[in-house]
Amino acid sequence: MAISLTQPAAERIRTYLETRGKGVGLRVGIKKTGCSGYAYVVNYADDIGDSDIVFEDYGVKIVVDKESLKLIDGTEVDFVKQGLNEAFRFRNPNVTGECGCGESFSV
Questions:
Q1: Nearest-angstrom CA–CA distance, 13 and 25
Q2: Which percentage of the chain shows pLDDT scores above 90?
Q3: CB–CB of 53/64 below 8 Å?
Q4: Domain 4-106 part of CATH 2.60.300.12
Q5: CA torsion, ordered 18, 22, 24, 27, to nearest 10 deg
Q6: Using CA atoms, how far apart are residues 5 and 96, in angstroms rounded to an integer?
Q7: Global pTM?
Q8: Segment 18-22 long-range contacts (CB within 8 Å, at least 24 positions apart)
Q9: Which helix H or strand E contains 54, and what residues bound it?
């Protein structure tokens, strides 16, 4: 079981955490929503709970709750810039479909 980062994603997270001045890493999870069923939830991780699993890539911690991990195990988190737009992108091998807008996915 693992969640990994690309080097650009790790650099962006590290920069955000340094600017923010606190946090232990990136928290990644899912929520039920959208036309395809699930959406990714990304936030700063200020602490690590008892039900969290922690991965580390390029010196950055990725914190995931056990329930979310069931659906996103094996996911690679990337950070991409396209013109003025920038965002985290997820390469989840468990995804069987995505909605047209790219905001939600199914497994």
A1: 7
A2: 60
A3: yes
A4: yes
A5: -90
A6: 21
A7: 0.85
A8: 20/44, 22/46
A9: strand 52-57
